[in-house]
Amino acid sequence: MSDVNIKITDREGVTHEVVAPTDMSMNLMEIIRSYELAEEGTIGVCGGMAMCASCQVYVINDPGLEPMGDEEDAMLAEAFHVKDNSRLGCQLHIADAMEGLEVEIAPYP
């Protein structure tokens, strides 16, 4: 069993240091939901299918995330509040390489 430490800044500007398991096939959106860092119904609206961008985050510190896939890139091309460092939390699967990741949850449309 292995865990990684991630810093997540919520939509009110409060930074939370969370521990995320790498052995449960979770993604960042699910971690944000499990720690209740975003109001219910404002994150993961599509269920993690890269179809709504409600789980968009801004990557502040990237310790080695996987490259963005085509579906994620296409969704972000249509989303609101997109920045150069935007990623979809549902597409960021928790892995050892995420140790030290820092993100900020983007505003909800």
From TrEMBL:
It comes from Chryseobacterium candidae. The lineage of its organism: Bacteria, Pseudomonadati, Bacteroidota, Flavobacteriia, Flavobacteriales. The keyword Signal does not apply. Keywords: 2Fe-2S, Iron, Iron-sulfur, Metal-binding. Gene3D superfamilies: 3.10.20.30. Residues 2-109 form the 2Fe-2S ferredoxin-type domain. This is 2Fe-2S iron-sulfur cluster binding domain-containing protein. PANTHER family: FERREDOXIN/ADRENODOXIN, TRANSFER PROTEIN, PUTATIVE-RELATED.
